[in-house]
Structure to design on (154 residues):
């Protein structure tokens, strides 16, 4: 019998199950093989989740003892709000378990974490080619019309 999906904070003993989800999220955005992130970034990201001085967190979706998805979130100041803003930086679900409500449950978990942190806004961005993600996001949030530009400082 399948147990209900549980959304919970990441634990140090989750690393072996977190890593394939992290790698899957990175591969989705073209960061794999020759273009993979340096291992030092992965190690630093992992360590930040357990450093109370870091404004980042990770929630996972667990079912039957297996991690099915994750979110990585960053809390930061804003020029338009007094309260911190929560950036949902990554949302990834195991492709074999998509369509079962895990993505929505993870977003709801981020909402709850944001409320608990005193945040009054959750933002996220995704690539224009992420059609499946955009379908879900359009049901749970409002697109604000912004285009994101970025560059590496020279």
């Amino acid at each position: 019998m399948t147990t209900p999906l549980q959304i919970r904070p990441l634990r140090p003993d989750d690393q072996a199950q977190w890593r394939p989800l992290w790698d899957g999220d990175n591969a989705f955005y073209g960061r794999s093989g020759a273009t993979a992130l340096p291992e030092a970034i992965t190690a630093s990201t992992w360590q930040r989740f357990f450093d109370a001085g870091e404004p980042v967190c990770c929630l996972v979706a667990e079912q039957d003892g297996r991690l099915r998805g994750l979110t990585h979130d960053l809390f930061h100041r804003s020029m338009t709000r007094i309260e911190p803003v929560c950036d949902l930086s990554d949302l990834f679900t195991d492709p074999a378990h998509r369509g079962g409500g895990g993505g929505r449950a993870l977003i709801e978990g981020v909402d709850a974490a944001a409320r608990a942190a005193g945040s009054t806004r959750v933002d996220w961005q995704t690539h224009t080619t992420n059609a499946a993600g955009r379908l879900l996001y359009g049901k749970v949030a409002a697109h604000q019309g912004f285009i994101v530009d970025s560059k590496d400082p020279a």
Summary: The chain has a mean pLDDT of 94. The radius of gyration is 16 Å. Residues 84 and 119 are 5 Å apart (CA to CA). The chain has four helices and five strands.
